[in-house]
Amino acid sequence: MKKILIIIMLHLLVAQLTYSQKRTLITGIISNTKDRPISVTLRIIDGAFATRTTQDYITKTEDGKFSYEFSLEKKSKATLYINGTLAFIPGTFDVIVSPGDSIHFTIPDIKKLGLINMDVSGIGSEKITFLKKSIEQVFSVTSSQKAYRYQTMAERYLDVDKKLSMIDSIFLRKTEKVSKNDLKIIHSKLVDETLEMLFMSSMASYNDSVKTLFEKYIISKNRILPLLDKSAIEYYGGFRILPYYSILSNGNTMQISSNGFMYDHPIEYTHFVIKEFNRYPIIKDYLLSDLAIKIFRDRWGSSISDKLYKLYIKNVDKVNPYYDQTIKEYAYIQNSLKEGKPFYDFALPDTNGLVHRLKDFKGKIVVLDFWFTGCSGCKTIVPLLEKVEEDLIKDSVQFISINVDDKRSWLLGIGKYSSKHSLQLYTEGQRFDHPIIKFGMVAAYPTFIVLDKKGNIVGIPPSIYSDKVGFAQYIRRLL
């Protein structure tokens, strides 16, 4: 009997490994571009957790056609960029792709992008077709004819309320062609994308009126319920909506001043999450693990990291799927990113292709600035950083801007999202998977890391946005 059980278990294991390594195919045609090559990038995003990974596949069309074949280990988010433009908008930012899918996108007109303007076919396409039809129905109930920026908060909440009611009605109908798991993920996706702009604007302009609207249209109607599902949390809800929900639900206890509240006040935010989601342990543990890893990476060596670690240990289930990873992250940072430890010995190209190595800057204080094109925080601090550089550049200080985009986006962003005075380097298209990003545990942008004259770690300086003087003094004390 034991032998039979062992054989069955081995068979199941082999079957699981075979499934997880299935080849996946994404193809398409841009019908009106057969006379010229077009740049197409497929980006695969593995979850939305703090340790998410992305993989870009880049090609050019031939006779209007493009094709990607790759291994996919788990259900993931995928998006397309055509000549650098997000191809699924209007409609959505991304779609769900499963291992073994063979999906074909027909794009009739390159000047008219958007998932709602595409035809989708092939194995696994039914979930994307269902998403497309659902989006069309949601768009049909938009009540306000005003541009979003001209709408009052009351109009925004009413519009979102109608859209969410339409979304709920869609999922009350029986849909046999789409799996239950995919339906849950699509439901959470639609709710997430419908709430995102509303929650961001509510955070930015929180007052008593917003509080009343939030309680009336969101809390009382339990609008976040589709996001409280363990099969969906790693895809949608966990990045912005549920964190913002925790904060907005407790807005009367602290002054909400920005969308970065959870990073500025991680201890208070942790208590909000515990209060709001204690009845949903997997959601609570996901959000607390996600925050903990981001704070450990962004503020290593600080007392806040140590306090958050103790609070995390006390309030999460130690068998939750994120626990071991979170504890390992903290231990790694404590052991490898201590002051005085050697930093990663990088070798990165500049805009002319010349490779620069860490050892090239021996004898100088090095300030590393990690950024990406489109990063609003990066853009905000550029004039502040340029002023500090002007004051310090003559004092044996080397400022190095390290970009995590592809080359085209990197070059477009220089001087807008990074200081024009800095040495400009980039991670050669490896994005968040480059060893320097992993070594430095860079989880938020912009991130600054200061190294001493021997290339050893000093630490993360005070925020240049909120404490420009402290930022400069942190560097100057090393001279």
UniProtKB/TrEMBL annotation:
Membrane-spanning residues: none
Gene3D superfamilies in the cross-refs: Glutaredoxin (3.40.30.10)
Pfam family, one: AhpC-TSA
Domain Thioredoxin residue range list: 337-479
Protein name: Thioredoxin domain-containing protein
CDD domains in the cross-refs: TlpA_like_family (cd02966)
Coiled coil: none
UniProt-listed SUPFAM superfamilies: Thioredoxin-like (SSF52833)
GO MF annotations in UniProt: antioxidant activity; oxidoreductase activity
Domain of life: Bacteria
